[in-house]
TrEMBL record:
Residues 10-240 form the ABC transporter domain. Pfam families: ABC_tran. InterPro entries: AAA+_ATPase (IPR003593), ABC_transporter-like_ATP-bd (IPR003439), ABC_transporter-like_CS (IPR017871), P-loop_NTPase (IPR027417). SMART domains: AAA. This is ABC transporter ATP-binding protein. It comes from Isoptericola chiayiensis. The keyword Protein biosynthesis does not apply. One of its GO terms (molecular function) is ATP binding.
Length: 352
């Protein structure tokens, strides 16, 4: 999905990364072809363990790919990362700020460290809506405010591309809303925002385009509207008494409808609720529930990835724990600003 002039913010081709583990080699990313257009919010979606973080870390030069190529604004990375690093800001792990310092003091320190002008500090605090609390100590902030400060840190160098790896992890609905609004605002200002997530509803609301990955491979990409449109029309969920499920299935299929089982209910594709209700009622079968279900990104995602994750969507393995441990080893203020700082601050070791 290049822009009219063909430029892509991010492109990967055949990107592959495996990790050594006690049980042999584990695939992190397997031949990934990713295209992120310039400008707007791009959702990078996939179940836990599908390779999102590994991909992001390869883009930022934190993990070395086994094979394949990656580029940012047309510059090969990691080889030419220094040429483009100033245009990129990223949050890969939770950043560390000094708890007793205010947002402003933390960002001033960071600006000095990365060579960003100090005048940017108030501007970025304003950009993420923290002006009213800029003088308060970091330790008094809510999780959502801490995360917004992390985003502010990435903006110090006024980058063109922002990369956020699961930025709403651990936030409550209000915090998620704050971050979502901040990311959408950045997209509207013409920045390119790559946001990884396994929470579809939030990405659906703010993303212009998405890439869906499973087991390290791209399984779908395009605009949110295209992907949802490809799902066909709405489905009707029909809740039935257990004894009626089989008879309702044969009744509806004999009338040419496509019927799927979902728990104790049936999902009837592309039909309207009144028709389904009438067909069943005429034969003395009464639905206990009739719900129209419109296609959304979640149904696209589940359809493409549900067989890919052992243990379902909430599966969290040792990998998450490793990330938490790695987080504890980071140090220094503003650890998550541009890739330079990310490289310096994220100490999670590469197994391979
Ligand atoms: N440092 C590492 N050592 C060994 N295996 C790893 C390492 N990092 C990632 N993996 C493995 O690579 C695969 C992809 O993990 P990755 O963290 O990239 O996925 P993800 O999509 O970001 O997952 P999540 O949503 O849980 O963060 C997983 O099987 C994971 O266990």
């Amino acid at each position: 999905m290049p822009t009219a002039d063909g430029e892509l913010a991010i492109e990967t081709r055949g990107l592959r990364k495996t990790y050594r583990s006690v049980r042999g080699r584990r695939v992190g990313v397997e031949g990934l072809d990713l295209q992120v257009p310039v400008g707007g919010v791009h959702g990078f979606l996939g179940p836990n363990g599908s390779g999102k973080t590994t991909t992001i870390r390869m883009l930022l030069g934190l993990v070395r790919p086994d094979r394949g190529t990656a580029s940012i604004f047309g510059h090969d990375v990691p080889r030419h990362l220094p040429d483009v690093v100033g245009r990129v800001g990223a949050i890969v792990e939770s950043p560390k700020f000094f708890p007793a310092f205010s947002a402003r003091a933390n960002l001033r320190l960071l600006a000095d460290g990365i060579g960003a002008p100090r005048e940017r500090v108030d501007a970025v605090i304003d950009q993420v809506g923290l002006s009213g609390r800029a003088k308060d100590r970091y330790r008094t902030y809510s999780l959502g405010m801490k995360q917004r400060l992390a985003i502010a840190a990435t903006l110090l160098k006024d980058p063109d591309l922002l990369i956020f790896d699961e930025p709403t992890n651990g936030l409550d609905p209000a915090g998620i809303h704050e971050i979502r609004r901040t990311m959408r605002g950045l997209g509207d200002q013409g920045k390119t925002v790559l946001v990884s997530s396994h929470i579809l509803a939030e990405v659906e609301q703010i993303a212009d385009t998405v890439s869906i990955v499973a087991r390290g491979r791209l399984v779908a990409s395009g605009s949110v509207a295209e992907l949802i449109g490809g799902q066909g029309g709405p489905a009707v969920r029909v809740g039935l008494a257990a004894d009626d499920v089989a008879i309702a299935t044969s009744l509806l299929t004999s009338r040419g409808l496509v019927v799927r089982r979902e728990d104790d209910a049936l999902l009837v594709d592309g039909a309207d609720a009144a028709t389904v209700n009438r067909m069943l009622g005429e034969q003395g079968v009464w639905a206990g529930e009739l719900t129209v279900r419109r296609a959304d990104l979640e149904s696209v995602f589940l359809g493409l990835t549900q067989h890919e994750v052992p243990g379902g969507r909430d599966h969290r393995g040792g990998r998450r724990r490793r990330k938490e441990e790695a987080r504890d080893t980071t140090s220094g203020a503003g650890a998550a600003s541009g890739p330079g700082a990310a490289v310096a601050s994220t100490t999670m070791g590469e197994d391979a």
